[in-house]
Amino acid sequence: MQSTEEVPMRAMILSGAGRYADPWHPYPDTSARLAALVAEAGYDVEVREDVDAALATLGDDLTLLVVNAGDPDGPDAEGVAPAADAASPAVDETALETAIDRGLGILAMHSAASSLRDYAAYHRAVGGRWEDDVSWHPPFGETHVHLVGNHAIREGLADFTVEDERYTALRLHDVIEPIAEHDEGGFRHPLAWAREFGRSRLVYDALGHDTRSYDSAEHRALIARALDWLSHVPAPTAGTGGVSVA
Questions:
Q1: Mind listing the domains of the chain with CATH numbers?
Q2: What pLDDT sits at residue 132?
Q3: What secondary structure, in 3-state letters, does the chain show?
């Protein structure tokens, strides 16, 4: 008799190492916390630190890609900046483009706003970026998270406070649907957003600087809601609602 047991969804976490590491973020620790949350959501989870090699070999059965990695053009884990004339290594985008075309869930965490700079497909997917000399954050500390909008992810969630960084003045380059914001300088800045593009879905969550962020039950609940929404791929045709670049 053929087994009726469901095959688990497969997830890959790209964890900052090598050129995707930096002096500020404890990627092994935060990736472990993310792996536990992704497993709780029903995925088989693989954590990869060889980011470029992993992206070149995404399998056809991959359902979820989690990006928890840093800026390849910034200083490494020892604080050493790349040489001014250093060329970016050649990357193979074919597997990522194919996965996005067929339908992929992408969860981009915190410094993922400045990561994967050599991947045009990721740039198109994420919808907004950390831009040097424009984007910034106040000192690490108490962050008041305001839930906004009517996206399915925020249903049942209330505003909360978490120990984290508040990324400010991220530059949007495409339409987003805001889920959470924070106040700074008399303005609201996006902290989390969702996007549908083609058959794929993305959630960007600017929280997650270190494990203190994942100690928050409310933040874990937000991630759990995001993982559930991202699991429904291939997605229906994307709508036109949301906030676009000014």
A1: 9-230 (3.40.50.880)
A2: 93
A3: CCCCCCCCEEEEEEECCHHHCCCCCCHHHHHHHHHHHHHHCCEEEEEECCHHHHHHCCCCCEEEEEEECCCCCCCCCCCCCCCCCCCCCCCCCHHHHHHHHHCCEEEEEHHHHHCCCCCHHHHHHHCEECCCCCCECCCCEEEEEEECCCCHHHCCCCCEEEEECCCECCEECCCEEEEEEEEECCEEEEEEEEEEECCEEEEEECCCCCHHHHCCHHHHHHHHHHHHHHCCCCCCCCCCCCECCC
